[in-house]
Structures are given as structure tokens and as C-alpha cells.
Design brief:
Keywords: Oxidoreductase. This protein has 335 residues and is α/β, with parallel strands linked by helices. It contains 14 helices and 13 strands. It has two domains: 138 residues, Rossmann fold, CATH 3.40.50.720; 177 residues, 2-Layer Sandwich (Dihydrodipicolinate Reductase, domain 2), CATH 3.30.360. The strands form two sheets. The protein has a seven-stranded mixed sheet. Strands 3-2-1-4-5-6 form a six-stranded parallel sheet, sandwiched between helices.
Length: 335
């Protein structure tokens, strides 16, 4: 019998609750949110038990906890679960800043409690196949990896105000993927961006369109592009280029691109609408993996150490955008 808890029932938390309710091996769900009416509605829909407080959830005998609350609460909630010895799945990031993430990681490492971080692209079938192609050597020496994330529309501006910026909020998924795919560590970042839509992005010190060049210790170059305005759909693609071969992930029939080659109708659509429909199966596989963690198995996805490295990369990109120059990862790590 495996019972899991879910803390936070916003967009992603409610989605995770729905996914978990249909997973084999999950025998019960205990959920909570600061809005009792929302918790009650989600519980009724998915056959879960709603409780009033996080403390009540953590004391309910759950075998694992999914932290899906707002980003500023991730560190506190994850540590609260870990202190009780409960295996935890934390949506990215584990903390609001890289420095805080590093401190949280130290506490988690000392506890010995397994924590998995929510970078679901690792569980997408195409992305996983690209990783295998790199690892089996069939691509030869990897010289370039490209990762793109473009949203159909910006999230609410209130969210943007507290998100930490496009690199900490959106590009972290790209940063995690290119680290994971190459198996190399980033050493330097150059980031640039612009505001071409709502001027409030600029008022919040953010941009709505960004590009990042990442130099890795093995010589590979990472090219990351992000945008908040892509009305055709949710665009998430990866290309990996080696001396011997190249592969791509995300070039499926739902890619939100209009091919103007008259001899080629690909992709046929319909376009992916949002990240939850693009990665539905990846989320399911990711959470199924966490069920095994709750049963005593190893973490198969992104670890807390991975999340810390991604946070430093995002920090360096943010600083590079601010200063307009390349920034070394060690510079921000030691600042």
C-alpha cells in the first residue's frame, strides 16, 4: 500500500493529483492547499482525502510527498518533509535562488532522505532516446546542443513579477536538458534578451524573448532560446549535433510550426497547446518513477544536486543579461 501527499493544488498540483490518482501502485492520496475550497473540490474529483494543513498531511502516514506549491515555499516544504524522513518530489526549483538551493541541498544530503526534482523532459520518450544516442557514442563527439522553449502566451504578470525572471522560470528546463544530454558541466554563459510585448516585463527587470550560449567543459556549445509569445502553440524542441550524426526531439506532428516548403506538409498538427498536453506521458512516467522512490527505490530523474547546478546556470544567465557580458559559472558560485 502506497499513499502519497500533494502539497499545493494550483495548476501543476491539481494536474499531478489527477495523474497520481490513475497510477498503478498508488493506493491513496492526501492533499492540501491554503484554499480549503480548492482542496475539497480536487479531493472530490479524484477520490483523495483533503486535510487543512501541511502539518496534518505530514503526520498522516504518507509514504511520499509531492511539493507543488508556489516556488517561494519549495525549500521550507521540502525540508519539512525530509525532516520527517518522507521521500519527496519537489517541482523545480528547490528554492528561489541558487545560494538557497545549495543550502537546502546540503541539508537534504545530510538527511539521507531521497528527493526527486521535477524536470519531466528527462522522461519524454524522444528526449530519452536522444540521451541514449549520446551515451552509446553513435553521434560521435558532441559539438552543439540546441534547446527551445516558447510559450503560446505569457503567464499572468503577477506570476512574472515573482518568478525570478525568464532564466529561472522557463529556461531552467532547457538548462537541465542540455546538461543531462551532453553529460558535461557548463563553465560560461552569455545571455541576451529583449522586451517586445508587455512593457511590464521591463519594469520587473525581465525579458519576454531570450537567447543563451552555454560553453561546456567538454567543448560542446549549448544554444537555448526562449519566448513568451508563440501563439501557434507550445514549442519545445531539442537538437543534438555530433561529429558523426545528429538527432532531434520534439519534431513531432504537433510541433507548432508552419512549414512553407511546398513539397513538405510536415507537421500536420494540431499543434501542442501547452506544456501539460505536450508532456502528459512524461509527467506520468516521472511520477510513476517517484512512486518507486516512495517504496524505497533510487531516484531515477533529476536529483537535488542536478537542480543546484541548473540554478547556478540560471543565476549566471541572469547576471549576463544584466551586465551584457559572458559570465563564468564559478564567478556566481563564489560571489
Amino acid at each position: 500500500m502506497t499513499t502519497l501527499g500533494v502539497i499545493g493544488l494550483g495548476r501543476i498540483g491539481a494536474f499531478h493529483t489527477e495523474t497520481l490518482s490513475a497510477l498503478e501502485g498508488v493506493d491513496g492520496l492526501v492533499i492540501t492547499d491554503e484554499r480549503p475550497d480548492v482542496a475539497a473540490a480536487v479531493a472530490a474529483k479524484h477520490g483523495a482525502k483533503a486535510v487543512d494543513t501541511v502539518a496534518e498531511l505530514l503526520s498522516s502516514g504518507v509514504d511520499g510527498v509531492v511539493v507543488a506549491a508556489a516556488t517561494p515555499a519549495h525549500a521550507e516544504l521540502t525540508l519539512a518533509a525530509v525532516e520527517r524522513g518522507i521521500p519527496t518530489f519537489c517541482e523545480k526549483p528547490i528554492a528561489s535562488t541558487a545560494a538557497e538551493s545549495a543550502r537546502v541541498a546540503e541539508a537534504i544530503a545530510a538527511s539521507g532522505v531521497p528527493v526527486q526534482v521535477g524536470y519531466q523532459r528527462r522522461f519524454d520518450a524522444a528526449f530519452a532516446a536522444a540521451k541514449r544516442a549520446v551515451d552509446d557514442g553513435s553521434l560521435g563527439h558532441i559539438h552543439t546542443v540546441r534547446s527551445t522553449t516558447m510559450d503560446p502566451a505569457p503567464p499572468p504578470l503577477d506570476y512574472i513579477k515573482g518568478s525570478g525572471g525568464i532564466f529561472r522560470d522557463c529556461a531552467v528546463h532547457d538548462f537541465d536538458v542540455i546538461r543531462w544530454i551532453t553529460g558535461q558541466n557548463p563553465v560560461e554563459v552569455y545571455a541576451t534578451g529583449s522586451v517586445q510585448g508587455d512593457p511590464l516585463f521591463a519594469e520587473y527587470g525581465d525579458v519576454d524573448t531570450a537567447a543563451v550560449i552555454v560553453r561546456f567543459d567538454g567543448g560542446a556549445l549549448g544554444v537555448v532560446s526562449n519566448a513568451r509569445y508563440n501563439a501557434r502553440g507550445y514549442d519545445c524542441r531539442l537538437e543534438v549535433h555530433g561529429f558523426d550524426d545528429s538527432v532531434a526531439a520534439g519534431w513531432d506532428q504537433g510541433a507548432p510550426l508552419r512549414n512553407v516548403d511546398p513539397a513538405n506538409t510536415f507537421p500536420t498538427g494540431p499543434a501542442h497547446n501547452f506544456f501539460m498536453d505536450r508532456f502528459t506521458e512524461a509527467f506520468r512516467t516521472e511520477l510513476a518513477g517517484f512512486v518507486e522512490v516512495a517504496k524505497g527505490g533510487p531516484v531515477a530523474g533529476a536529483t537535488v544536486a542536478d537542480a543546484v547546478e541548473v540554478a547556478w546556470l540560471a543565476e549566471a544567465a541572469t547576471e549576463s543579461l544584466r551586465r551584457g557580458v559572458p559570465v563564468a559559472i564559478e564567478e556566481v558560485r563564489n560571489s
